[in-house]
Amino acid sequence: MIWLVGAGCGSPRWLTLEALQVLSGAQAVVYDRLIHPDCLLLAPKGALFIEAGKRGGDHRMEQEEINRLLVDLGRRFKTVIRLKGGDPFVFGRGGEEAAALDRAGLEWRAVPGITAALGGFLAEGIPLTHRGVSSGLCLVTGKLGDATDPQGYFEGIASFKGSRVLYMSASSLVRNLRLLTSLGLSPQTPCGILSWGGWGRGCLERTTLEGAIGMGEAGRLASPSVILLGEAAHLELKPAPLPLKGLQVAVCRPMGEGYSTARELEGLGADAFTLPLLEEETAVQEADVIAGLREANWLVFTSPRGPRVLKDLIKDLRHIRCSTVAIGPGTASAMEDTGIGVDLMPQRPNSESLGELLRGVIRPGERVLFLRNRRSSRIPVEAVAEARGLPVEIPIYEMKPRDIPWMGLIREHWEDHPPQAVVFGSAALAEEWSRRLGGLPGRAKAVAWGDECAKACMDLFGGAVAMKTPDSKGLVDALKSLLSP
């Protein structure tokens, strides 16, 4: 089955539930250049990823090549996803791809997406229809096929009573708008020009038809843009302000945490890209962990990941019969979410404070079990030894490099809109970034999740914005500081 799927405009949060479902079973994904790269994280890691999009005048693949590619993949794979920005059947040439699949005798289905006119203008507080202002909506393209009569086509647009949205028209805007004025549309017709509709970087310019012509002649129109003509363009409803509006952020954390962090930041107005350069791999057997728990007087977790891995590994938490320690609130929350109680927690969520706590409570001869990443700070372990306790370390997981096949697409987004911040979830992730990608892009600042991470960022990138608390609030506060004048 070939699925023609709309990725919407901007955040993956706008994907439909059906799009999420079919992406999760994809064996091959053919995507264009206007999708959000994080949509590809929702497909299996082992899938084949092919970029085949077109952007402005840069055609990586002609449409006939894309059609042939889909037919070829449809014959080789059980589930193929054609992932397109917006809606594949709203000026996305989805109909042509479906027709090619029909001719080849291949089955296909379509999943709608939120198109730029609907999602983009709504995000800016502009309703395309409004009682007493606009009772109709016309979506049109600024690029006509050879069989279309331009005069008759634009006569219909000029005489339409309601909102008119022109797609793919930045390069031909001046010619098209001049034609509309010659056909009787008033030069003072309200106009809204929206670039990157639906994205945090989205930019709206309210003007008139005459003003839009002037902007086009001055080369002030960005691509991709959609153009709204009609009284609705000057309605000014006021959606709630977004504190991170327009901020471009790279989130370098493992998949689960990174993806959810990026979506949270997008809910506050940012564009966020997830780069899970490292991924978790279980490093021990269940029997070894159970044996360690049986003899432990204390169980210590130094990250939120530890309790989650433990629960997946041993299933039955009744094996935990000792006192428990969390390094900080985030870890304590993860313990409680998995059904593990928290007995102690240091005042500050770092290795030094944890070491001080353990040094004060451990009695000689008590066994202290650390279940954590293979690579972790030695400070708490040494503190237990200094208290004449018996530290036992079981590295229940380790972080391994993860490939990102669409890194080229992320870089393309950053060419025009470079990130102002790169969020690192650990020192290991900062080191992996440096090893694979070099320095930070443009003038981006490193935002560090924890003291050890901040030290690594200082060494690798020459500076870091240290979060005051290792949680969502600490991250948002740090990012707000980058937007402050």
UniProtKB/TrEMBL annotation:
Keywords: Methyltransferase, Porphyrin biosynthesis, S-adenosyl-L-methionine, Transferase
Pfam families hit by this protein: HEM4 (PF02602), TP_methylase (PF00590)
Annotated ranges, domain Tetrapyrrole methylase: 1-210
Alphabetical GO biological process terms: methylation; siroheme biosynthetic process
Enzyme class: transferase
Source taxon at top rank: Bacteria
Gene3D superfamilies cross-referenced by the UniProt entry: 3.40.50.10090, Cobalt-precorrin-4 Transmethylase, Domain 1, Methyltransferase, Cobalt-precorrin-4 Transmethylase, Domain 2
Location of the Tetrapyrrole biosynthesis uroporphyrinogen III synthase domain: 261-476
Gene Ontology MF annotations: uroporphyrin-III C-methyltransferase activity; uroporphyrinogen-III synthase activity
PANTHER family for this protein: S-ADENOSYL-L-METHIONINE-DEPENDENT UROPORPHYRINOGEN III METHYLTRANSFERASE, CHLOROPLASTIC, SIROHEME SYNTHASE-RELATED
NCBIfam families referenced in this protein's UniProt entry, alphabetically: cobA_cysG_Cterm (TIGR01469), PRK06136.1 (NF004790)
Protein name (record): uroporphyrinogen-III C-methyltransferase
Source organism: Thermanaerovibrio velox DSM 12556
